Fold these 2 entries.
Entry 1:
Amino acid sequence: MDPLRIKGSARIYDAMIGVGGIGTGSFFQLRGNHTLGREESRGGRFLRRNDYCKLHIVSHYVQTLMGSGFATIPVGMVGDDATGRQLLEEMRDAGLHMRRIDIAQDVQTLFSFCFVYPDGSGGNLTTVDSACSLVTPEYVQEAIGEFQKYLGRGIALAVPEVALAARRRLLELGGEHSFFRAASFSSGEIAQAQKLGYIPLIDLLALNLDEARMLCQEHEKNTLAESIVERTVTVIQNLSPKTWITVTAGVQGSWAWNGERLRHFGAPSVEAVSTAGAGDAFLAGVLCGLAAGLLLFEAQEFGTLVGSFSVLSPHTIHKGISRSGLQEFVKKSGCVVSESVMNLLAS
């Protein structure tokens, strides 16, 4: 497939080097919507959904959509088990560059047990002693040759499910080699990342509404989404004026801050099969748009398309997503996108 880029223009970035979780999980739907008690036994059933971790999801979409000539290089570990071997095979099949993925002996691949209530809410339990726990700053440092190879022409991506210190080292390497640096944090770690000075290391901070709420310390549940986003922008401006922000809020759409202006984007009306992984798909789309030469607001449109298309699959990676598939999705869903985005899909 030809590389993704704006017609008549050179692609801005030629590679993405990322660190984060590589693993899988299971979805279990509980009976009844009341919150599971500490000592309660509850019936339910496993759902037929393939679950993947954040780095794998984002990397899959970036490589698939960017096409040949673009190198997506995940940095991480899996265990020496059937799950790890299956994930490696799937990642190779997607065209990812696997030279920075190692197999850890006597350790299991990262696994999450996701429980879902009938109303769609839920949570997850994730192993903390998996192969991903062995991804250290020193391990990330070993990928310095990849940064040197793509000096000034790459994206550095740091996402959850490995230690914050390892993610920091990747962002530092990105800064030292003139990479565009993107990152996300879970709701439980965003305050710590802020306290430890991570925000100035980031060019694009990707948040969902709950993460934005934690960042601006908004504890009132009835606060309007737009107010939370505006407060988040203020916090980021005080910490790092040059950092861009994207905030996703499900059916409420998303927001983008480009350092000067805040813009809201509506969410396409689609009948979602599962929203799991949609935020990661959205981030992948934004990064693809930026890599191909779009401005942030246009890249946000592209991310919205990818994220919206992803919810049509029960799995956290929709393996049917492609540029041609996105073109059809625009036609069928009635999405209004800019000419730049349509030209990008046609490239």
Note: The chain has a mean pLDDT of 92.
Entry 2:
Amino acid sequence: MSKQRLQKVLASAGIASRRGAERLIEEGRVRVGGRVVEEQGMSVDPALDRIEVDGRAVTLEPLAYVLFHKPRLVVSTMRDPAGRPSVNDYMRDVGSRVVPVGRLDFETSGVMLLTNDGDLTRALLHPSSLVLKEYRLDVKGVVDERGLQRFRDSIQIGERWTQPAKVELTGARSDTTTLAVTLHEGKNRQVRRLAEHAGYEVLRLERHRFAGLSVEGLRPGQWRRLTGPELNALRALVPAVRRSSE
């Protein structure tokens, strides 16, 4: 195995993100060959060098790619200080430590991708990737043309303005309207904030497609591994990852 940056090896082993790995190094918690690492950017060969964090040897796990149907009332983090159910509770049989690619809020259900491939994760989440995220949204009341246009507005989240969402009316009953919402970005609670901006109460929100992946055939709480063609399609979306793997 060729040499790699220490931060990348730690991230690939599921120890921490690259930034988290840098903090571990700064805190003097990482050793290579028995010596404390004192500088960032060190190159190591994980097949030859003994790498330790807090005295425990680091071993590279095989890369894993998991498609998960997240239920409502489950947090997208790997653990929750408040003791609520987390996606980690459903990943115990995967065999590798995987983490979510992005998040869904506590009350939102739908498709999630989890992996220990840090390069793919960063590429999919980078604003330039233009990965599509598609949602089914039920709101209370009738959405007229003016309301539909407000759903398509750019809104401010934090210090930035969002790109306009693609929003289409897909169903209506006397007291409920169903919308299809497609985003290129994934700002914090963006779809719910759009509904608030438009003046509608959210009854149900589900992400039914992420980067072309859907949870068809999976009940809430179930997961499966990505197929080879699905993984190839993901990598084709992010050329930087494709180049780094060649």
Note: The longest helix spans residues 228-237.
